[in-house]
Predict the 3D structure of the following.
Amino acid sequence: MRFSTLLKHPADWMTGTDADSAIVLTSRIRLARNITGAPFPGWARKEERIEILPMLREKIEALPEMKDAFSHQLSELSSVQKQVLVERHLISREQAARSDGSAAVVNRNQTLSVMINEEDHLRLQSIHSGLHLREAYELISQVDTQLEKTLPYAFDHELGYLTACPTNVGTGLRASAMLHLPGLVISDHIGQVIQAVGKLGLAVRGIFGEGTESLGHLFQISNQSTLGESEDDIISRLERVIQRVRDQERNARTKLVEDDPQMIADKISRAYGLLKFAYVIDSKEALTHLSLIRLGSDMGCFPKDVIQLCDTLLMDIEPAHLQNLANRKLSPEERDAIRAEIIRSRLQNLPTPVIGFIDSHSDFINTQPDTPPSSPPSA
């Protein structure tokens, strides 16, 4: 599959429509695996990575799940194309920095991707929309089982799967979910939630993982330990925490509407006006306002399918996606102008927000007379 074909359609996980998608955008499972007898990529010489790559790539491409997949060495991709894959969460930033001896294989609907010779020989990843960690794990486990029949995994009967980083030893499993939490951010409760999640041994990160900031009120929650717990225990624990955070976000949204409906209505309406009519907008500002439109859709201010429109836009207005679309390197000023143009175009048919939750206030205004009351009749 060509790079242009990969980008032609949004990934399945970007168009989720189940009940949880308004708050839990995606569920992701990643497995780290290495080959016994071969130096791990971080310690291998360039020649050694190049030597093992064809064998690994052949095994991955032969998987039924990878029929007609996108499969390329990183050295065959431009820096912009590699960054596009990062923005789509198909490869890591670390993988994008690599060239000779590394490759990426992605299935057609972009729910399954494999990084070859990243930090480990294989990084297998499955992404599912909504809160569906078990479905994501079932797919990746099926692929892992097939590969283990033909590849000699580095495995210790006491420790489990051996990995480049000690924090991945054991199951080699990293489970995570991407959550949209504007209610907790606006109500200023997000700090308490992050602190509580941290005490449970889980990590809260930004939109692109470790070391990145939260943009668009998006947060990733993932397990930190992979040793001493089974895969099922890790997923069950994470599911419980995510369900709890999801419920807290739902409560925060309800409370905001009850306590200060005008403030929420103002934020959503301002976001609507700015995105519909701005001619220049940077990435951070765009993500913040799209987040509020997404929130407004969940609150009934816009049709429900606007959530999917926002999710697609969140990806398409990222810097590398814009430069790939323009087929040239863009200055930050050019990106801001093109980003605003794309948003205006995609939102041109977006109706004016219906702020139903302040109807009672509107009813009060509508009952007031249009003209001052006449003077009382004289005696």
In short: Residues 363-379 have pLDDT under 50 and may be disordered.
